[in-house]
Structures are given as structure tokens and as C-alpha cells.
Amino acid sequence: MVMKCPRCVQRVHRSAMQCPHCGFDIADVDRVFGEQEVRLKCLTDAAGVMRKREREAAERALADFQRKFPQLFFAVYFGTFRELPSLRQFGFWLLNRGAFEDVDVSRPNEGGILLSVDVGGKSAGISFGYLLQPFLDDDLTFTALSAAHPFLLQGHYLRATEVVVERMTRILKRQSRRVRRDPERLEAGAGDNGEGAGEVLERIRANHRSRQPKL
Amino acid sequence: MGKAAISLLAWGIVAAGGFSQDLPPLPKWDEEDVEKLRTGEIVPGQELLREVLGDLVPPTLPPEVEPESPPPEPEVPSLEQFPSEIDSEFLGEYFARRPAGFILDPQELLSRQEFLDRVSFLEYHAGDSEVDLYVYLFDARQELPEGVTIESVFSQNFADGGPTALVFYFLGMPEKAQMVVSDAIRASVTAEELQRARKAAIQEAFEKSDPADQLDNFSVELSIRLYWFEKAMTIPEATPATATSEGAPSARVEPPEPEPQRIKPLLRGVGILSFLALAGGLGWLGRLIADRRMRYVFPDLDGGPLLGAPHAAGVGAVVSFSSSQLSPSQQRDEVPDYLQKM
């Protein structure tokens, strides 16, 4: 999977501490949004676009997602930003500095997916943690956003949230099955982090054995 | 100008009065002319006008022609004048034997062509349906002879045939029509349905005013109804119509037992289909349950830190939803931020 800089959207190496193209790193967004942790919930409606019932329905959808993916969580942030440099950078910052109160500690932010919606600026973006980096990219997340686009246009934010979660669930299910069937393929993609092929495979299978719940 | 003309006319009248004493005496009417004048043979001034107008005036006015009185209409006997009894010479043909054709009209109430049309239709019906339809035609006011009923005629003449419907139709009065059907039909069709069929045929007949057309409508509607009765009933190989001692058919013919050879493959097919449906449903349910219980995990590859981020550096898509005219692809944000706001 290709790594991209949140600011210049150029490809960067997976271990780069700064973007070689624009010099971006997390300190840039910390200066804008703050470097302290922010406490929030998986569903944060700072823009106030959802009714109580809609919030409850959205929380149920997020809980369903967590049930299916024991390592992951899904967070949604509705806000209205006036001086936001970019939604992409905001998502990058929030997923690193956010402390999600209603997420179990066994699910670190590495397994998080964040849907950020700028209600005033009318744009939406998706960010994700390191755990999902080999399995998601710009195009896959675009399919989920594009499915929710009609609902975003009409201001049906609950339905838009449900659609994004549903699409992301589908994508991640497929990716999970794929990696279970063909771990060598993943290994080929992850080979440049210094690990040997055997080590990657061993860790993947060990992970499956330890985390696969009994059916 | 107008005053001068009036003065001249007045002078002329006065002058004429002055000369009148010199004129010969006026002729007098003799008695004969007066009579001709009264009868119109002489028109006063006709000769003078002839000289002025020439041929425009006929020599004598045509005698006034009295309008011819319309020919007296043939006296149409009212319904009350029709005999209510059937002439005894027709009784044998009506009730003694089974008719040779599907319509019986010994009194020739229909014209030849009308009769042939009805026969043609009823023969077509008989060829197309298992249920034959016989129609006896009577005049509107005619009554059945004492002791004769449609049931007795049916049991006497039609009891040993196949599924049959017999109708006594009174030409010009469709509402008097009577109908009886054989036991094979009564076994599968209720009396209410039979009544409904008769009433529907009568109603259809009233759509027309001509008695022959009424009969036409009646028989067509009844034919349709009999077709549906035929569909509803199970026709045995031979359906003897049984009758009670009173003459009315009463014993119901039980439908024959279905052949086991036909039932078996049918049951087997239904069983297989049921089994497949059940298996499919269970499979779907099992898959649904399994899917709900299924947990999807990912290998932890220890990615990062990237760009100094401790937890996440995954950059997904950003889409604007500011325009409903543009597609999501056209509103996809892939431009570097420093070219936009920063």
C-alpha cells in the first residue's frame, strides 16, 4: 500500500519522519490544533447535525463494527471548521491525539478508522491507523465516501455514516479473508520494513491463532 | 319632395271621383261565379295579373291537396293478447322426447336465420365444452302445462347423458328463464353459483332490446359461465345423472379418487422442492448467524512511526459534497494543501 503525506498528498516512505517533498510532520498539525490529547467519544457531533435518535442509531452501527473487528474501532467526527488547513491533516491529527473514551484499551488508535465531516465546508475524509495501513488506501476509502455522497449532499448524516461504515466493513472483511488465505501476498507488500518473509508469516498466523474467537 | 308627391296623389283621387259618373256600371257576380269563388275555382284579378306577370302565374291554382292520411298500422297484439297456453300440437315436440338439436323452437318464434344463428352458436359451445347447453324457446306469456317442470323434463329426457344444462327461455322476457344442470355440475358448483350464473345471463340479455338479440346475449353469457363450471368440476368418464323419486336430481356424484400413479411423482416433486427450500433457508440462516458471529482480524505488522505520528498516518480519500451537479470523482480532493489554503 502506498503511504501519502497528509499535506502534499505525495508518496512517502513508510518510515519517513518528515515528508521529503514538503517537510510535513506531526508537529505542523500540533501547532494548529494542539499537542495535548483530546478526550472524545467515537461519535462526536460537534456541529450538532444529529438528533438523539440518530446519534443512538449511529452508535449502534459503530458498535456493530467493533463486534466484527475485535482489533478495530470506527469513529465519526462532525464539525464545522473555519480556519481548517485541511480535513486530511485534521484527521491525521485527531487519530493521533484523540483519546476515545468509549473504546476499550485493547483497541488502540492504531486500529482506528476516523470519518471526519466538515459540515460547514462540505467535505468528508477518512483516516486510519497503522494497523490498517497495509489494507486500506485512498481508492478503497473513496469508494465508501462516494457511496455516502448522495446522503451527504442531502444532509442525511446518519444514513451517510451508516453507508460509510457498511462499505468499510465490507472492504475490511474482504481484506481480512484475503490475508488469511494468502499471507504471502501481504508479506510481499510489507517486505521492505526489514523483516524476513518467514517472520512476517509467523507473526500473522500467530495473530490469527491468538485472536480468533471460538465460533 | 314628399309633400309634392302627396299633393299630386290627392289631386288624382279627386279627379277620378269627378269622372266616375261617366263610367259604365260595374259588372255584377252571378250566382254561379259566386259559388266558384267560394270553392276557389275563380281567383279575383287572376286575368289582370296574368297580363302583367305572364307565365309566372298558373292558369288556375292547383286544387288544394289534402295530405294523405298515413296507412293504418297493422294492429300489434299486446302481450296480454298472446295465448298463455302452449298449443297442444307442440306439447309432444317440447316434452315427449329429447330434442335433436341444442335449441328447440317448434312454434317458430325465431326467424329462420335467427334460429340458425343460435343453433350455430350452441353447437360451437358443445364442441368447445364438456357441458352441453340445451335451450327450449317459449313465448313471453306462455306457461308450462300443468304438472310439467323443467326438472321433470330434464330427468325424463336428459338424465342419461353427460354434463348438461337445460334452459327454458321465454322470448322477450329473459327474467323468466329457468335453468337446471346435471348432477355432475351440481356436485362441484353450489346452488348459489348456479343462481348467480342465471342472473348474470339475464342481466346480459337486458343489454339488448330485441328479443332475438337478448337470447343471443343470454346464451353467450351462460356459455361462459358453464365453461367456468366445467373447470371447477371433475368430470368422470360416465356421469349418470341420478334422480329422486320426485324427479329432481339430488344424489351427488363423488369425484373419482385420483390415480396413485399421477400423485406419486407430484408428491415427490413437491417433497424435493420443499426439501430444497428448507435446506436453502437453513443454509442462509446458518450463514447469517455465522456471519454475525464471525470476527475478522488483521496481522499487526508494527507499522510506523511515520511523519512522527505515534498511532496513525493512514491518509484516505477526501471528498467534497458541495455540488449536486458534479460526481464524487469530480469533487474528490487530491490537490496538495499548500496549493489551497496553506
Explain what you see:
The complex is a heterodimer of chains A (215) and B (342). Chain A is α/β, with parallel strands linked by helices and 215 residues long. Chain A is built from 7 helices and 8 strands. Chain A has helices at residues 26-33, 52-68, 87-97, 138-154, 157-181, 183-189, 197-211; strands at residues 3-4, 11-12, 38-40, 43-45, 73-79, 98-100, 112-118, 123-128. In chain A, the strands form 3 sheets. In chain A, strands 4-5-7-8 form a 4-stranded mixed sheet, with helices on both faces. In chain A, helix 2 (52-68) runs parallel beside helix 5, helix 4 packs antiparallel against helix 5 and helix 5 crosses helix 6 (183-189). Chain B has helices at 2-19, 31-39, 46-53, 88-96, 112-128, 150-157, 183-186, 191-205, 211-232, 260-293; strands spanning 103-104, 132-139, 164-171, 178-181, 314-320. Chain B has a domain at 82-232: Roll (Diaminopimelate Epimerase, Chain A, domain 1), CATH 3.10.310.50. Chain B contains 10 helices and 5 strands. At the A-B interface, strand 1, helix 3, strand 8, helix 4 and helix 5 of A face strand 5 of B.
* Percent helix range of chain B: 40-55%
What structural class is derived from the secondary structure elements of chain B? Answer: alpha/beta
Instruction: Calculate Rg of chain B over CA atoms.
Output: 50 Å
CATH class of chain A: Alpha Beta
The number of helical elements of chain B comes to 10
Largest sheet of chain A: 4 strands, mixed
* Strand fraction of chain B: 5-15%
What oligomeric arrangement do these chains adopt? Answer: heterodimer
- Strand line-up of the largest beta sheet of chain A: 4-5-7-8
CATH architectural arrangement of chain A: Roll
